[in-house]
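User: I'm putting together a small comparison set for a docking exercise, and I want a reference complex before I start. The sequence is below, and the ligand is heme C. Could you produce the 3D structure with the ligand included, as structure tokens?
Assistant: Of course. I'll restate your input first, then give the structure tokens for the complex.
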Amino acid sequence: MRVLTLTGLAMAALFLGTGLGAPPAVVAQDAPNYCVSCHQALTVERLAAPVARYTQDVHAAKGFGCVACHGGDPTVAGFNGMDPAKGFLGKPEGQLLLQVCGRCHSDAGFMRRYNPALRVDQVAEYRSSVHGQRLTLYRDTLVATCTNCHPAHAIRPPSDPQSSVHPLNVARTCSVCHADSTHMAGYQIPTNQLERYEQSVHWAALSERGDQSAPTCNDCHGNHGAAPPGVDWVGNVCGQCHSVMADYFAASPHSAVFTRLGVPGCALCHGNHQVQAASDTLLGVGEGSVCSRCHVEGVGGGIVAAAMRARVDSLRAAYGFADSLLQRAERAGMEVSQARFDLSGAQTALVQAQAAIHAFELDSVAHHADEGLQVAAAAVERGHGALGELRFRRVGLTVSTGLILLLIIGVILKIRQIEA
Ligand code: HEC
Ligand code: HEC
Ligand code: HEC
Ligand code: HEC
Ligand code: HEC
Ligand code: HEC
Ligand code: HEC
Ligand code: HEC
Ligand code: HEC
């Protein structure tokens, strides 16, 4: 109880503008540390557990002791080490926690000594996030603070597979709250983000193929809640990675209209959490197309949508035909490896045409589709050529086999004649 009251005093001092001052120094390893020796002997789990847990913490590895975050004097035996007059802060929470972590992490000069590449904007970014705003404005205790995402006494760098903020673990860390309908009951937002995200192409790429370029929660929402640098709205975040589509889209007739309508760009057609693999079905005015949500067949955008789909379909069909022709020739033993290699140009053109859809005008798609069709046509010609040559060789083979057969019969007859 005494500790708690004194903590209150320390906090009051902070809010009066005293601040925490410069980062604390690293404690010499051979100095006595009564915080550790007393706490590890305590029988109350909540008081003893931090000591054992802390041995795995990145701050312990850098030589910091308990006082780095809690203050106090570790060289004093007994409870006096926890005297607020010696800077003891108690259990830092809320605004005090931001000051405790920020004392080092917002101090560029201090952090540079340890890791010059580490950013020093976590507290500032956090303050601009929905979490930070609600903490500051409403003293909302249900939002995430530093130690919800980086559990105190077990903080590890994001690159450590056991870290709560390793790419494979972030979704679960956020979802401790965001998938808990009891925790989120007082808010107007859904609690299905994790469930949906785990069905997305992005999670499949990250978890099944280990593709760390695929996004998890913080890649779209920012590590510390605000959208990533250079992105003024989370709805625009897709272009960080899918820049070709984003560039086409930005110059398209939809860009301005969607902004005016308040429609969320990419996420309108692809979703945000449950992004699925794209397919041609999405394009055109047929069933399952996204265009038909707003356009009708035979009018304006509907005409263009159908025409784009026709181009993509014909290129896909031409590629398929050319490819099967070359495969037939190859199975028959003809040398067509160069032709097959050249045909991959049509596949590339197909991918380019699918990306060019995002310009939402026919010419961009037609340009790539026509290029691909020419490549496919050339491959078909070479396929027919190879199969034609095969027929020619087969006729040649039949004739020569006949001649050899006649020759053998002639020799046999000759031998019989001589023997007789
Ligand atoms: C002689 C034993 C002893 C020493 C030395 C000691 N503590 Fe404690 N500490 C305790 C006990 C007992 C409590 C529980 C007090 C209570 O609940 O009021 C406690 C509570 C705490 C708490 C929790 C406060 C809260 O608000 O729940 C923190 C944090 C803490 N100590 C950190 C430290 C640090 C840092 C040091 C070294 C500067 C230290 N302790 C030194 C015994 C000790
Ligand atoms: C990097 C900062 C940091 C360091 C270093 C640190 N702690 Fe803590 N500790 C915290 C924070 C923050 C809390 C508040 C509770 C929470 O968010 O989990 C806390 C809470 C506690 C509590 C209260 C636990 C509870 O559940 O009520 C105790 C006791 C404690 N720490 C002891 C220690 C001891 C002993 C050490 C050194 C071995 C230490 N801490 C080192 C940040 C730190
Ligand atoms: C005494 C100064 C100090 C305090 C207080 C402090 N940190 Fe640190 N922290 C560091 C240093 C130094 C590193 C090591 C940086 C490095 O070498 O990469 C570090 C590393 C980290 C890392 C790993 C970064 C990485 O990529 O390597 C995280 C996460 C972190 N701290 C979070 C916190 C949180 C959350 C708090 C508050 C509860 C906190 N820190 C309090 C100094 C501090
Ligand atoms: C909503 C969850 C969340 C909160 C709240 C949060 N962090 Fe982080 N933090 C992350 C994630 C996720 C990463 C991993 C980023 C990555 O993969 O590079 C991270 C990374 C870090 C790093 C490593 C360097 C960096 O910027 O990437 C530090 C240091 C850090 N956080 C400190 C803090 C501090 C201090 C606070 C409190 C002001 C805080 N974090 C609050 C989720 C959070
Ligand atoms: C400790 C619980 C907790 C954790 C952990 C947490 N959040 Fe939150 N988050 C909340 C609460 C509570 C809100 C406020 C909801 C509101 O205002 O509608 C919120 C709000 C948000 C919002 C704004 C939603 C809106 O539009 O109002 C986003 C985005 C968000 N969190 C993302 C994340 C991400 C990403 C992570 C992990 C890196 C995370 N959160 C971790 C509790 C948490
Ligand atoms: C591919 C990018 C992306 C990923 C990955 C992602 N989000 Fe989102 N998220 C968005 C977009 C876009 C919105 C809509 C934002 C808007 O309309 O302002 C959104 C909205 C939200 C909201 C507001 C409520 C809602 O559902 O509309 C929360 C909370 C949220 N995301 C949390 C998460 C969490 C937790 C994860 C990880 C499990 C996650 N997000 C992964 C892009 C993403
Ligand atoms: C008006 C609807 C619409 C909008 C808005 C939209 N897309 Fe698409 N997107 C599509 C359609 C339709 C396809 C399928 C093309 C195909 O496979 O024929 C597609 C395909 C894709 C593909 C897969 C391309 C491939 O090579 O198969 C990606 C990636 C993609 N879109 C990203 C984005 C991004 C990023 C944005 C925002 C900048 C965006 N999309 C905006 C409709 C849309
Ligand atoms: C951090 C980078 C990153 C961000 C941000 C991102 N994506 Fe992706 N996206 C990827 C990666 C990596 C893949 C997997 C490509 C693969 O399958 O090989 C992918 C796949 C896709 C696909 C499937 C492509 C296909 O070939 O069918 C679509 C559609 C897509 N993303 C749309 C989006 C949308 C919409 C957003 C924003 C809400 C977004 N992405 C945000 C990296 C990202
Ligand atoms: C959210 C509704 C919405 C969706 C979905 C949508 N569009 Fe549009 N589109 C519009 C609006 C609104 C305009 C502007 C209409 C205007 O200026 O007459 C437009 C304009 C166009 C235009 C310019 C044509 C013209 O008449 O000037 C094209 C082309 C187009 N869309 C193609 C597509 C294609 C292809 C898809 C599907 C991949 C699609 N749109 C999906 C709403 C949508």
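The CA atoms of residues 400 and 406 lie 10 Å apart. The radius of gyration is 35 Å.
User: Thanks, that's exactly what I needed.
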